[in-house]
Design brief:
Elements (H helix, E strand, L loop, with lengths): L15 H35 L9 H14 L10 H24 L4 H30 L1 H6 L8 H25 L5 E3 L2 E4 L2 E4 H4 L5 H15 L4 H33 L4 H27 L20 H20 L13 E3 L9 E3 L3 H7 L3 E8 L5 E9 L6 H4 L4 H7 L3 E13 L2 E12 L2 E11 L8 H4 L5 H9 L7 E9 L4 H15 E3 L1
Antiparallel strand pairs: 1-2, 2-3, 4-12, 5-6, 6-7, 7-11, 8-9, 9-10, 10-11
Helix pairs in contact: 1-4, 1-11, 3-4, 3-11, 3-16, 6-9, 8-9, 8-10, 9-10
Length: 525
């Protein structure tokens, strides 16, 4: 007699149903963390879109995803998490920080401390997800592509200004020495190079040394792409920094020599080609160095066969639910009431076209691209006493994150870089002009032996009350930013203007002249 005996399932073997469930859990995890990182991209997109220094940021998410995929092909066998309780606790703590961070970000889309906080929360949650799915081996293996995203997060303002200004001054000083060596007479005034044909601002010749950060990104990517050893990656990163600096010197030297021989106007024809050339040169030199440093084929890690894992279902479901709840709460918190009016300012600027020698001044294209204002311009004229005046006025509509540009280009930052010496800076004073109290900050500079007074006004669009000048004044302290979020005031643009006058030695006379000019310029409503 024959008997058909069914084969008993092997203990621990994966059935087709198990594999299907595993794939669905993996897809859910992937979707949850993709949603999380899209939130971070949304937080950073204004910097990437509006600040040319970080425009390379749009490429970083795609490069990070590709690097993650390459690491996935080489992933080790998953292990059980060593301390699941601790990992879950860290994940809950990071998710708890995400909620207030997202709430505050709506009122302060330019706050870089908040951008770093949100990015680090996403990194922490990603590490927790990797730990729970594949243990410490997965967390270590995928560390680079997760952390690589941080290269697109803008530097803290103080650090950025210190590095950029220091490099620009060094760039200017070295370029002047090179020009003098070849017989081209040049003088340095801060970040301005004076030639016989005119003055070349370092911003014209080297746009903020922005290639430094982009070169860092390229060096890190190439180090991972060729799977370089740690020491060789550090060497590639240092080489990238040096290449960016010396290529910028070469660009500055070239444009200054062009200006000295063909006139200042010739810079416009050479500016963009020189910028493109410096980027290509840096890229190819870094690429060549990375090829030189890359490992031999037998040194490269090989792909390992891994067994699949079920993953954790509760983490992606919880993360998706928490992000959805956060967005609902944020929308409800910032929902405008009938009493709130969306307007830039309850006052406007009337250009004094009737003043003697009134002339509109063009805004340089590079400055316009950097400031990204919606309305604005510049003009010069002479007052009745014959003293020269200059005014800049810019308006940003809602969603343009004006503070992102204004706080990096105030008189106390820009004018010393152009060779002027700041002698005095006041606190914000409220000046009553035609029924509007304007928050005015006063500066006094020495302009090559001549006194220069600057009157600077910044009006936050979140204040629609003409008498609420204190609330409208710039307050980018942590306290001011948190207060705006607590009051449910989302970013609504801004209005900024500067008045400059030369020749007043006496402070009281300068302030009285300011009052007279403001009465002609500022109109309520």
């Amino acid at each position: 007699m024959s008997h058909s005996i069914a084969e008993a399932p092997v203990c621990g073997a994966r059935t087709a149903r198990d594999e299907t469930v595993s794939r669905w859990v993996f897809a859910l995890e992937l979707g949850a963390f993709l949603l999380l990182w899209l939130e971070i991209v949304s937080q950073l997109q204004s910097e990437w879109s509006l600040n040319p220094q970080y425009s390379y940021g749009w490429t970083v998410p795609f490069l990070a995803a590709w690097l993650f995929y390459q690491r996935w092909l080489r992933r080790p066998d998953p292990l059980a998490p060593r301390h699941p309780g601790l990992t879950i606790t860290i994940a809950i703590f990071a998710a708890a920080i995400f909620f207030p961070g997202r709430l505050i970000a709506v009122a302060n889309p330019d706050w870089r401390l908040l951008s770093w906080t949100m990015a680090l929360v996403a990194v922490a949650l990603s590490f927790c997800g990797l730990e729970l799915a594949g243990g410490s081996s997965w967390r270590r293996h995928f560390t680079f592509p997760v952390v690589f995203f941080l290269i697109a997060t803008p530097w803290p303002v103080q650090l950025e200004q210190f590095v950029v200004q220091s490099l620009m001054r060094a760039d200017t000083a070295i370029t002047i020495q090179l020009l003098n060596i070849i017989g081209t007479i040049a003088l340095q005034h801060g970040n301005v190079i004076e030639l016989s044909t005119g003055q070349v601002g370092i911003d014209d010749a080297c746009t903020g040394v922005r290639s430094l950060q982009a070169t860092f990104m390229i060096a890190l990517f190439l180090g991972e792409f060729y799977w370089l050893a740690r020491g060789r990656r550090v060497l590639l990163l240092l080489a990238g920094a040096l290449l960016a600096f010396f290529c910028n010197i070469g660009r500055t030297f070239l444009l200054c020599e062009v200006a000295a021989t063909s006139g200042i106007s010739a810079i416009e024809r050479w500016h963009d080609p020189a910028g493109f050339t410096i980027l290509v040169v840096c890229l190819f030199l870094l690429w060549g160095l990375s090829l030189r440093l890359k490992r031999s084929p037998n040194e490269c890690p090989v792909r390992t066969q891994t067994r699949s894992t079920y993953g954790t279902l509760w983490l992606p479901l919880g993360l998706i639910g928490w992000i959805a709840l956060t967005e609902i709460a944020v929308a409800a918190w910032y929902m405008p009431t009938s009493a709130q009016k969306v307007q830039i300012a309850p006052w406007s600027v009337a250009w004094p076209t009737d003043e003697p020698d009134f002339h509109r001044q063009p805004i340089p294209e590079t400055a316009a691209l950097l400031l990204r204002f919606n309305e604005g311009g510049a003009a010069t004229w002479r007052a009745a006493d014959g003293r020269p005046w200059m005014m800049y006025s810019f308006r940003w509509f809602p969603g343009r994150t004006a503070a992102l540009f204004v706080k990096n280009h105030r008189p106390d930052i820009c004018l010393p870089a152009s060779g002027l010496t700041m002698e005095q800076e006041s606190r914000v004073h409220l000046v009553n002009v035609n029924g509007v109290r304007l928050p005015i900050r006063r500066y006094r500079f020495d302009d090559r032996g001549h006194p220069l007074h600057i009157f600077y006004c910044y009006w936050d669009g979140r204040s629609s009350d003409a008498n609420d000048a204190e609330a409208a004044a710039e307050d980018w302290t942590a306290r001011g930013r948190l207060r705006a979020a607590w009051q449910g005031k989302r970013e609504l643009g801004a209005h900024m203007f500067e008045l400059a006058v030369w020749g007043y030695e006496n402070e009281a006379e300068a302030h009285a002249a300011l009052q007279r000019e403001l009465e002609k310029i500022v109109k309520r409503g």
